[in-house]
Structures
1.
Amino acid sequence: MPFNPVNIDPLNLSPSKGIGINIPFNGDAIFKQTFTTKEDVKAGILNLFLTEQGEHYLNNNFGSGIRNFLFEQQSEGLDSRLELFITDQMALYFPQVNVEKINLTNNVDDNSISIEVLYVIINTRETDSINIFI
């Protein structure tokens, strides 16, 4: 009789132990902590997209460079280039995550793009999403 077992990350077995640093950096102490793999992956992805290349101390290659799309002319090819860029960055820095869907909403009046990235953590099959506005 087949069944679909759920994998539990060993880091999630001790809910009172912090495993990472959450964003934004404004906790009661110096930093807010993450206590689950899902929270930690989400904070890492947000950190990737908020960081430009060259800003991360001791790892100058870390960072998405998504702000470079801010002053691009909004055209038909921009959406496909942005989707490819996001999936490449996620595959490079977060191999434990599969990107399920990317929703782009162009606002020509404000010259802004709203990006929603839906992803699945491979080991635990947990789904989550992040929203980015550029």
Note: The chain has a mean pLDDT of 77.
2.
Amino acid sequence: MMIIPIQPLPNQTMQVQLAGQSCSLNIYQNAYGLFMDVIVGQNQIIAGVLCENLNRIVRSLYLGFVGDFAFQDTQGSSDPVYTGLGSRFQLLYLEASDLSGQG
């Protein structure tokens, strides 16, 4: 598991290399919550996933993504909002070994 550095901005896109995958992560806030897209190379893995505390983002092995993501509230159990990104709300990358035995 590793922490992906993010900023307290309502809309952000970052490039990160994870498990040999060139990933583009889009994180954006709207009136309904914080959402995330994951793109590997030119392939969209998931889009518009609602970010909730400790709830995996990708969730499904058949999508072909190695690992997963989750947000963690370091001060409680609230769902993330952009104002606390990078401090209260951390973005975790869960490696394949962290997910062994999970579907």
Note: The CA atoms of residues 21 and 46 lie 15 Å apart.
3.
Amino acid sequence: DKRNDVFRPLRDGRQDIVTFRIVNRWGQTVFESGSTDTEGWDGKFAGRDQDMGVYQYYIKYKCLDNKYYEMKGDVTLIR
């Protein structure tokens, strides 16, 4: 249905994404980008669908105040 097919941070134009990373439960990076305007994680790694489950995300971004901020959390992959 083309809904929720890609996971990426939403921003309002006042932040610059420095790093966006998705890690599996073994600590392996399955996705990493510094440009999320057009890129996001589609649930694949090396062209292969990943197992359903919980993955961790990490985001480092810079705001208009020229300070860097970090955010992390979980995302659940469901097929």
Note: Strands lie at 15-23, 29-33, 44-45, 48-49, 53-63, 68-77.
4.
Amino acid sequence: MKYKTTKKAIREMGDPVYCVGYCNLQNLLRTVDPFAYSTRAEGWACDYYYIHDVIISTGYAPIGRKTDYNLCCEYDQKAFAIWSNYNLTFEQQQEKVEALIEEFVEKLTA
């Protein structure tokens, strides 16, 4: 269950925060639950995912360091290909996507 927080509180956590546009990693983060979210005057702003010592902020108004759009597209497409492979069991798909997430974070922080 995620809790409501402020963008300031997320920035002050000390972990690096990376900004990803709305739905740019929907397939990659499909089975990962966000730990928090923020709102703005219009409503929901973004969700926060804590993955391998970094925070990924994704939504309509995410915060953090900009990420390469092409890198996000590449890994989201790889994740989509895994989820679309029905010859694999759900557990196998999930394992492959978790490895992909790890690889994505390594490239993101390099």
Note: The chain has three helices and six strands.
